[in-house]
Specification:
By secondary structure, this protein is mainly alpha-helical. It has a single domain, classed as Substrate Binding Domain Of Dnak, Chain:A, Domain 2, CATH 1.20.1270. Helix 2 packs parallel to helix 4 and helix 3 runs antiparallel to helix 4. The radius of gyration is 27 Å and the shape is rod-shaped. The N terminus is likely disordered.
Length: 127
């Protein structure tokens, strides 16, 4: 009787572990998703959607988050997690590209103003 009880407990424990791992596998990896979504929002906050190259990577990040949800639905949480890491990386790249474009535009405007001042100075006018 005790041997039967021990084997029953063992089976119940094994079934519990299987059920728990099955449940864990059907959820999107929370931290990876949070970080990917935060990176997407950060890219949007600096205007990545308005810069062509940045917008491309931002769109990829959105697609990868959606694909991660599909992978979880297909029972592939590891693939989902990798997609979320890729989404975070693409969103970070989108943010960097948007910032670079803004910095280039500022630099060009500064260069234009300096050139105007130089021309005025050479013409004998006031700065």
């Amino acid at each position: 009787m005790i041997g039967t009880w021990k084997s029953s407990v063992g089976w119940l424990a094994a079934l519990g572990l299987i059920a728990a791992s099955g449940c864990a596998g059907t959820q999107v990896p929370a931290q990876a998703e949070t970080e990917a979504v935060a990176a997407i929002r950060a890219a949007q906050a600096v205007g990545a959607q308005n810069e062509p190259q940045a917008a491309l990577h931002l769109a990829l990040a959105h697609e990868q988050v959606a694909a991660a949800h599909e992978r979880v639905g297909a029972g592939e949480p590891e693939e989902a997690e990798l997609l979320l890491y890729q989404a975070e990386a693409d969103a970070a790249l989108a943010q960097a590209l948007a910032r670079e474009a803004a910095t280039r535009a500022e630099a060009e405007e500064t260069r234009r103003r300096v050139e105007q001042m130089r021309q005025r100075f050479l013409e004998g006018g006031k700065l």
